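ok so I'm stuck.
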Amino acid sequence: MAATSDTARLDAELLLAHALGVTRSAMLLHHMQAEAPASFAALVARREGHEPVAYILGHQEFRGLNFAVNPAVLIPRGDSECVVEAALQARPDAARVLDCGTGSGALLLAVLHELPAASGLGVDASTPALAVASGNAKALGLAGRAQFLLRDWTQPNWTDQLGQFDLILANPPYVEDDAPLDPDVRDFEPVSALFAGPEGLDDYRVLIPQLPALLRQGGMAVLEIGASQAAAVSAIAAPNGFTTSLHHDLAGRPRALVLTPC
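replied:
not stuck anymore, here's the structure
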């Protein structure tokens, strides 16, 4: 797998643990001398074909929580934890949270996990994605505080009867149409959640002007952005009545933009 992955050893350990039906820690402690099950070779072959480990395993950790994933949703990444942290700093008292383009539900459910008095709504244009998010809410014991609806922010009247929110989260598509991507991403993750026009800004241009009507007094929005998009997205936000502040991920890259109504 070395030709496919920069983390070939870790990938192999995770796949072997999966084939053995144990955790990676248990495998390293107790099963290193065990013969690899016959199913292991098939898992390795899938990884050598660039299929992401998270899709092979069917789950991915995010902020210490385990999320089911499949090719209907983006794989939650550590970079996006910055969005959750920025949101919790911006509105630690949020009572009602909206997640636009919820996918696996990772952003919304991670925030609700930290805010036990809050409830939330996740919207997505993909029915299969909503099924994944709903399953994750149930698995994490958050189904009583999280609702999921089929809505598409590019269509008229998508906000009807949603109400208003203290906190809005969004990780919209923001990849440029011609951006070079690793095969792991390009060939497996959902195209509709990745690409957003020649500059990667099309969805920001559609979504941001609709945010003011969705925010309660004192409400704030937190958007994930590409590493080079802070200035461009801030320029979209300003004429729509927002000031912005930037948060960086653990690698020091611009990652989350907090929008505060002027």
